[in-house]
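Query form — protein ABC transporter

QUESTION: What is the three-dimensional structure of this chain?
INPUT:
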Amino acid sequence: MTTPLVEARGLTKSFGSFEAVRGIDVEVHPGEAFGFLGANGAGKSSTMRMVSCTSPRTGGELRVLGMDPDRDGPRIRARIGVVPQLDNLDTELTVRQNLEVYGRYFGLSRAHVRAKAVELLEFAQLAERADDEVEPLSGGMKRRLTIARSLVNDPDLLLLDEPTTGLDPQARHLLWDRLFRLKQSGVTLIITTHYMDEAEQLCDRLVVMDGGRIVAEGSPGELIRRYSTREVLELRFPPGEQDPEPVRDLAERVEVLPDRLLLYTADGDAALAAAHARGVRPVSSLVRRSTLEDVFLRLTGRTLVD
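ANSWER: The structure tokens for ABC transporter are given below.
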């Protein structure tokens, strides 16, 4: 087993009497894409800020790139890239200048950052906009530029906090492609997200956080096998007319929603045929594979927590 790039034991973060991160254990190994999956307020961003050495830990142990953030923050920050939740580009500079000026903060030569900027503009598919101002760019372009800027120092570790929030589907998929290429090139990624499909697409391994704690850990496939079934049968009814009793024994678990029943089963088609044989007549039906969203909702519940 390789030495972890990030290792946390009993890590906590408090803001006054509020404990945002409640004693988590995490290991991130070189070359993997590791995810923190959770709803807003679950503790993901607080954890990322501790790893990125921008917020001190309250308690527990934390090592990043083999160093202690409390003592070695500047050395760690020189070797990581950070993509914050909100873009913080310099709108008074051009696209190219955002990369070149940022590279100078790391003590890189002008010649090096000029060459690196050309490489990163191609990677982010922004070469044709290199000399444009930043403000008119689309949200997806700004996000790609923010990611490109985070790579200017060739980081050993790239931290991405909610990288695709607010983007349309086309921009999200293009960004996923860029991140997948980074992963294939050996860059270690840590991603926070509340998008289940994003976690399934990008993460080799992830933890599910809820209320500042880790409630599950594994690969997307492992988590689905552990906490859900192979398939889910959705039976949709007029509101108030869904009765779970006739189908309760057809699945490992039946969930009742306002307009439908969810039957978690190994064989959705067989469960649907059995339901029809018992006279159950939904307005519509759908057999689909289980997803991380099913796992997440089972672990954290469907109730909105502020």
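ADDITIONAL NOTE: Residues 6-218 form a domain with the Rossmann fold fold (CATH 3.40.50.300).
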